[in-house]
Design goal:
alpha/beta; two-stranded parallel ribbon
Length: 535
């Protein structure tokens, strides 16, 4: 695994990977001279504990030995990082070959970005551990202090949303999280959880997993790839030794969590497709009550905290809307799932979005929308899409009545796509909230509805183009979702700045877009250069 510490000419061969993993992963590298290095390479064998692991407190103590966020460089915390690498060989997967950071986007081979993001998520967990074990000051510092640009505690918007300025809220979050972590082994489970949670982003990892599956079940979805590996004892032993050491019961909890393929942050902003809720609804009630789903949902919070970490700043960032907002949303969702009669995907989605809508648009809700909701068909189709589109704008769009009228009278394709009333895979516009909210520009009053009409036409065009690509799916394909990354459109909006012309220009840009899809037609990305449309 040559790229792990290339700057020091060190290759980490992590037992029990030593032979199989090196052959399966390293030699797949392309264009980086992986197996033809022009310098001597020192090989260091890191052997994880076969039966016993280090305690969570030991990792916290090792990190405390540094200077915290005042010395945020990875080079200032080598002992801590070596402990992590020695205990969790899976971390090296993030350093090998190409890593898919989001649909259609890959890092340069050997980039440490995803490795340090994962390390950041694990530090966020250790911060919570310290906080509930009596070291509140250091725990909070690790997720808030230091020079963090506009998110620093003394800068705007950091002074309002950096949790360093909300110590009691942070402590409340940590205590709430720790309520069901009754033992050191429960905390260790979460350490392993975070260490492996994104290994499916590795091209090589997915290739290894897909090679064991029938063609119809192969996928480039990183959560599904991880779930498939967790369900195969041989793959788990070979690729995920830290999980294997947890024992079958905890390993199964991990597998069941990732099998849901559900992303909590994307639910509240109307981004996910309806089918994304199927996984959590299919979970046995026992998994909702035994902490499996709870652990899976909480891991998203730590994951987001570590998203900005890199080798120059390894400490995560706790933001109020993420830590407190998502926790509230999570508890709401868990409460609904614990009800005796589970809702279906569309009812769950509708009921989840309704309270935020009602809070922002109380008069319209009372005078118009509430009576329409007596119809189940309305709630499942037009009503749900109405709530989703408003959520995409963070409920900042003002002309709710005009939006509802347009959806009721036209945009049938858009309504069918966004309500999941369609045959074949459902489509999610990844970064859709940014595209719609920013794409509308400054005219959120939109008294004529022309701005929103153009924006919805842009969305409908993207759904139609994606549906056309999906016609190439084999008849026996088990793909149920296609994620289209529209971040390149968001980039064009940002580049235009104050010259952006709202929904009209959004549709023009969408019409110029080309959809580049992956091999399995599970993910795609917008491109604007001269790319072969058959790719």
């Amino acid at each position: 695994l040559v790229h792990a510490y290339r700057s020091e000419s060190v290759a980490l061969v992590c037992a029990p990977w030593s032979a199989a993993m090196f052959e399966g992963l390293c030699c797949k590298d392309t264009g980086t001279g992986c197996c033809q290095a022009a310098f001597d390479i020192q090989v260091e064998v890191i052997t994880p504990h076969a039966k016993h692991h280090q305690k969570v407190a030991e990792f916290a103590a090792a990190l405390k030995a540094g200077d915290g966020p005042s010395n945020p460089l990875a080079s200032g915390h080598t002992r801590f990082l070596k402990m992590l690498d020695g205990q969790f060989p899976e971390l090296q997967i993030y350093r090998i070959g190409k890593i898919q950071t989001s649909p259609g986007i890959e890092e340069i081979a050997g980039s440490p970005t995803e490795y340090f993001r994962t390390v950041g998520a694990m530090i966020a967990l250790l911060s919570a551990y310290l906080t509930v074990h009596g070291d509140e000051e250091v725990g909070l510092q690790w997720v808030s202090a230091g020079a963090r640009g506009p998110m620093s505690m003394d800068k705007v918007p950091g002074k309002f949303i950096n949790m360093g300025n909300k110590p009691q809220d942070y402590k409340k979050f940590c205590e709430r999280f720790a309520e069901e972590l009754k033992s050191e082994e429960d905390w260790w489970f979460m350490m392993v959880f975070l260490a492996v949670h994104d290994v499916g982003k590795s091209d090589d990892f997915r290739h290894r997993v897909n090679a064991t599956l029938p063609e119809a079940q192969r996928t480039d979805d990183h959560d599904k790839a991880l779930s498939n590996a967790l369900r195969d004892p041989e793959l788990m032993q070979m690729l995920l030794p830290s999980v294997a050491q947890l024992g079958p019961d905890r390993a199964q909890k991990l597998a069941d969590g990732f099998a849901t393929n559900f992303q909590l942050p994307q639910l509240g902003q109307g981004e996910i497709a309806c089918v994304s809720l199927k996984g959590v609804l299919d979970l046995p009630k026992a998994r909702i009550h035994d902490g499996t789903l709870r652990s899976y949902l909480y891991h998203s919070i730590f994951d987001i905290a570590g998203a900005g970490c890199n080798e120059n700043f390894i400490f995560p960032l706790a933001l109020l809307p993420v830590y407190m907002g998502f926790t509230s949303s999570m508890e709401d969702l868990m409460g609904r799932l614990k009800e005796e009669n589970k809702p279906d995907e569309r009812s769950l989605y509708f009921n989840f979005l309704y309270p935020a809508f009602k809070k922002v648009y109380p008069e319209f809700e009372e005078e118009t929308f509430r009576a329409l909701c007596d119809s189940r068909v309305f709630r499942d189709e037009t009503g749900l899409v109405f709530l989703r589109i408003l959520a995409l704008t963070r409920n900042t769009y003002k002309n709710a009545g005009g939006l509802l009228a347009m959806l009721s009278l036209s945009f049938h394709t858009l309504v069918n796509e966004m309500s999941g009333n369609i045959k074949g895979p459902q489509i999610m516009l990844y970064y859709g909230p940014d595209m719609v909210r920013m794409g509308l520009g400054t005219d959120m009053e939109d008294t004529s509805c022309a701005n929103m009409r153009s924006a919805m036409q842009a969305m409908e065009d993207l759904y139609t183009a994606s549906r056309q690509r999906l016609k190439k799916l084999p008849a026996n394909s088990e793909t149920d979702q296609f994620d289209l990354n529209v971040q390149p459109i968001v980039s064009k909006i940002k580049e235009a700045g104050n010259d952006w012309k709202g929904g009209r220009q959004l549709r023009e840009v969408a019409n110029a877009a080309i959809i580049q899809a992956n091999e399995f037609l599970t993910e795609g990305i917008i491109v604007f250069d001269d790319v072969d449309k058959t790719n």
